[in-house]
Amino acid sequence: MSEELKFGRVQIHPTRRQVWVDGVPATLGARAFDLLMLLVEQRGRVVPKAELFAKIWPGLFVEENNLSVQIAALRRVLGSNVISTVTGRGYRFVAQASGEGEAAADAAPAGNLPVRLEPLYGREQELIQVRDAFDALSCVTLCGLAGVGKTTLATQAAVQLAAERRYAHGAWRVELGSVTDPAMLPQAVSEVVGIELDGKRDPLRECIAQLQHRELLLVLDNCEHIIDAVATLVDGLLSRARRVHVLATSQEPLRVPGERILRLNPLEVPTSSHDEDATAYGAVRMLLERVRAAMGGIFEPSAPELVEMIEICRQLDGVPLALEFAAARVPVLGLAGVRSRLYDRLRLLARGPRTAPSRHRSVQAALEWSHQLLSPQAQEVLQRLAVFPGGFSLVGAELLLGEQGTEDGENLIEHLNVLVDRSLVTLQPGTPPRYRLLETTRTFALDCLQAESESGDGIDWQARHAQALGRLCLLAARERDSTWMWQEMPNARAALAWALTAPGQGELAVTIATYISVVLAAGGAIREALDHLLDVQPLLDDDCPAPLAARYWHWLGRLGVEGRLPSSQCVEALLTADSMFAALGERRHRHACQRHLAEAELRAGRAERAEQHLAAARELEQTGVSAADRMRRLRVEAMLADARQQHEEALRHQQAALALALAQDVDRYRLLLMADMAWTHLQMGQAEAAVEDFQELLQHFDDSIRQGLARARALSGLTAALVAAGRIEEAVASVGDSVLALQQANLLRSRCEVFAWVAAAAGEVQVAAQLIGAGEAFAAQSETERDPISMLACRHAMALIETRMPEPDYRYWSAQGGSAGETELLGLLGQAFPGMQADAFDGGYA
């Protein structure tokens, strides 16, 4: 083969080993060129992979992905439609050479698939799954909610299948959205495929009989509104028309034997607004291209605009139809304007293409199409479940709906099954599983619920939601299931916000605030937990049940330690709780109060009182408490020993407590105790050992906020240990993570001295002086003494400051720091350590 070959845009010069595309020389490696020539020479057939390996890499053993890499390189240069993958067999060169067009056209199968295809974004894996499924099956159904992109994917897959398999009688797409009468289905299919029904027999049977001897691909698009009729047709085709392949799109499965169901989720979206690889996500790529089209093809987003695009994608859950409408609004509103108006998304996301089906001319219309296909009972369940802002469990749904929401639990499960099948509710696998409505679907359902309420059903579903969450908090606490409670946190926050302002709901508000504070605190979000407790404090009255009030005062005092509340307020709250628990005969809770009182007194610098409360806790243990409670008491014993500079004794207590934590599988306390032991090593002057301890400890953490408090202690400990070891650059680099974790745990001001030490060691003595002043003010305001680590850090920071700053200057700058709020402290830290993460300055809760 020596003459020049032309395939559309591509010219190949075999003797010169050159390839030109659109008249421009293209760069190909030697292997890629050899592979191309082999495929061109064999373009009348599928070339198996084994043959390609044998001829391109003769006598060599190579990994299979080498072939994939070379094929991908050819497609990048020549275009994606030149080389076709025949799943499970090999590759075929499918471009037409000059002079072959007429013969190729004659051989081309019939069909009505479009010539121009909508691009796919982020659906590469699903496309492969559809094509591969037909290797073993004859029917594939793409399921998903309205507007998720089922038709686009099905059309792309059909075009590729038709090119690869060369169905003798073509590939045909039947759009069923306009077929309102199920009896007309056989006629609609027959008209598209080009067969005639004589009308003498049952149309369905005659249609199947006519197709029985054909080899074709039938794409049945939008089946959900006549699903039973489509299922009957497909079942007949699968039984009697063995060479007919069916690719269906529907909001629910056909449920016929031999069907493969592929559920199409929304496009993937970034998890963070500042994701550097945002355009790698299908949703962002799609929105970007649609905005470009709307703006006349010229649009390159700036960094702030890319953040707006990410947030639009996240708020719209990556639903392609919603992204289409959002992009259409950008030329008038801009990206920021579109994002700011998503609260009114059902009105904003309208005005689709004039040629689109009516159900796709607005998001509202698409959802109404799905909604009207539900039974009245399923519609009611969907609307009522929309009051959950953070997803829900089956138990939560049962608590919400009760007797008025559904006849019984079995009916609820049946309705949920329908809603999940039709992709109106998303199943999130887990133990137990959870469910959620995409936010746009939820907005639509809430609008329907409001209209229902206004029509006079007499039920306040927001109140029902709050009451359900109150009962759920009690149930989760009784089962000691913090994971379940953490999953319900968005719902609990919404319920609490409602109960705080609703007349007569004080007990409900106190219940929710008290029980979620336990989970929030364990996760390190102590600031939020304490704020909730303080918000409901005015609602405590004589009518509040004693067990609830006792738990409230216990947790207020417990979370207020370490300077979050004045020590006197913590001690008063814990004494109140202890007295109430004594009256209730709850010995275990009294034990907790005594050890927390010991910790509060210790933080206030009253070691003798702390010892008295620890003695009371030990006495309560004589009549029996759990090993986990003894572990917690031993940890406070170690704190007391550390405060008295009895570090060896502190280590013994910590080791004993750690052994109990391991035996009881109390993972959170295991991490806290490991951090405590590293702190003790640091106090003993073993800085490098402490660095190793903290670095090893940080390997045990995941990204869950449930480990937030232990992570905050470990990160700040690592910063202190690094500066103590003289590893200043590493200490500076660690500040950002430490600040963020401490801020989330409401511990930032209690660790000012650690950052003062780092700042002074890095030469930022003015900032160090202000941080020392902030630490002094914090100790005075919170009625606490500096803990041993803060005293150690303060001592070293002051030694450095004294050598570099005159005394009058120090007094001035420390006074400035003493009057600074947390926002100003964050500004100071950002000034001294410019590399800190931006997230450390958001001031929000985790």
UniProtKB/TrEMBL annotation:
InterPro entries: AAA+_ATPase (IPR003593), HTH_77 (IPR058852), OmpR/PhoB-type_DNA-bd (IPR001867), P-loop_NTPase (IPR027417), Sig_transdc_resp-reg_C-effctor (IPR016032), TPR-like_helical_dom_sf (IPR011990), WH-like_DNA-bd_sf (IPR036388). It comes from the Bacteria. Keywords: DNA-binding. SMART domains: AAA, Trans_reg_C. Residues 2-95 form the OmpR/PhoB-type domain. It holds the Pfam family HTH_77. Residues 2-95 bind DNA. PANTHER family: HTH-TYPE TRANSCRIPTIONAL REGULATOR RV0890C-RELATED, REGULATOR-RELATED. This is Winged helix-turn-helix domain-containing protein. It comes from Roseateles agri.
